Amino acid sequence: MGVKKVFIGWGELEKSVNKLVSNIKEVDYVVGIPRGGLIIAVMVSHRLGIKHMTIDHLEKLEEDGFELIKKRILIVDDISDSGQTLKRYKKEGYTTATLDVRNSTITVPDHYVNWLDNTNWIVYPWEMKYSKTIQDYLDN
Fold first, then answer.
1. What contacts 30, CB < 8 A, 6 or more positions away?
2. Distance between alpha carbon 128 and the CA centroid of its chain, in Å?
3. Are 95 and 71 spatial neighbours (Cβ–Cβ below 8 Å)?
4. Residue 3 — very low, low, confident or very high, per pLDDT cuts 50/70/90?
5. Is residue 57 classed as helix, strand or coil in its secondary structure?
6. Is the pLDDT of residue 92 over 60?
């Protein structure tokens, strides 16, 4: 039968972001993980009235040895699917957030909206309707 695709619209996304930010406090910056976290990070930035920082800027600060109060930086992604992407940030002490968390993830973010007990493939509004149900880097 294959994996079922579940399409999320902009209205549902807005509600999820509002729910996500309702419990987030004491962060000064938000960083979106490319690609899925970028739009969400901008939305969170506007709603919380905090600055947005790119992942490149964050990595440059880390390389330069700039002392960061990591728990005051919110790392955002759309979903913690396998959990590999967020693993490093959570381990290093950053605050993490996603809209969705798959029950098989190895990294549960500090903040999330939906816990997924199924294998449905979530298609967010910025993705193509024909998006693959496998990450691009696994498709080779």
1. 41, 44, 45, 48, 50, 51, 52, 53, 73, 74, 76
2. 18
3. yes
4. confident
5. helix
6. yes
Average of per-residue pLDDT across 75-83: 97
**Domains, the chain, with CATH or none:** 5-138 (3.40.50.2020)
Q: Can you state the percent helix, strand and coil of the chain, rounding each to 5?
A: 35, 25, 40
Token pair 């990070």 in the structure block, residue:
41
123 CB-near residues (< 8 Å, 6+ apart) = 5, 6, 7, 8, 129, 131
- pLDDT exceeds 50 at position 140: no
Q: How many CA atoms lie within 13 A of 74 on its CB side?
A: 30
Q: What is the pLDDT of residue 130?
A: 67
Q: What is the pTM of this model?
A: 0.89
- In the prediction, which pLDDT does 139 show? 45
